[in-house]
Design goal:
single chain; about 190 residues; alpha+beta; Nucleotide Exchange Factor Grpe, Chain A, domain 2; 2 domains; three-stranded antiparallel β-sheet; elongated; disordered C terminus
């Protein structure tokens, strides 16, 4: 044998084992670290949630202001520019652009895109079928998300027979077009 009694062996083992206060201290440290991690995760979650809420509120606010922008633009076109309206319009537009608003560029002859455009009328035209003939109302994006689709007139192509009776096919309801575009864009 190695010369140690049973009591001496137990005392040596007890010296290497952590004391009750050391175990409690380790438990508290673990709980503290976990609590810090949980709080950090909560803080990040709330930050993202606040950003989303801010984004939604800003989108709603800017969408409401777009009608004012349209009215100013129409006043400039229809009444001529006396300088004052155009100055106000430009300042107002710059403020909206600073908040992330961007006009969706649409030109005569562009290809109609269900996800980005809202067709309000289909007409016979010299342009090939599916090309944009005219922009009726401008569209806008807020932080690269469409908040208002541009409303456009779309070509059906040349009329097959100029003497053909117009049976009302030139006008087509496009609600399903917009809904299809919204599905493609995730809602917008």
């Amino acid at each position: 044998m190695n010369g140690k009694t049973e009591n001496e062996k137990n005392e040596t083992n007890n010296k290497n084992a952590p004391t009750e206060t050391e175990e409690t201290e380790t438990d508290y440290k673990d709980k503290y670290i976990r609590l810090l991690a949980e709080f950090d995760n909560y803080r990040k979650f709330k930050g993202k949630e606040n950003e989303m809420l801010k984004s939604v509120l800003l989108k709603d606010f800017i969408t409401d202001l777009l009608t004012v922008l349209d009215d100013m633009e129409n006043a400039i076109k229809n009444k001529g520019d006396d300088g004052g309206i155009k100055l106000i319009y430009n300042k107002f537009k710059k403020i909206l652009e600073k908040q992330g608003l961007k006009e969706i560029e649409v030109n005569h002859g562009d290809i109609f895109n269900h996800g980005e455009h809202d067709a309000v009328l289909y007409v016979n035209d010299e342009l090939p079928e599916g090309k944009i003939v005219k922009v009726v109302r401008k569209g806008y994006k807020l932080d690269n998300v469409i908040i208002r689709h541009p409303q456009v007139v779309v070509s059906k192509g040349k009329a097959e027979d100029d003497n053909k009776k117009n049976d009302g096919d030139d006008v087509k309801s496009i609600k399903h077009e917009r809904n299809k575009g919204n599905e493609d864009n995730g809602g917008g």
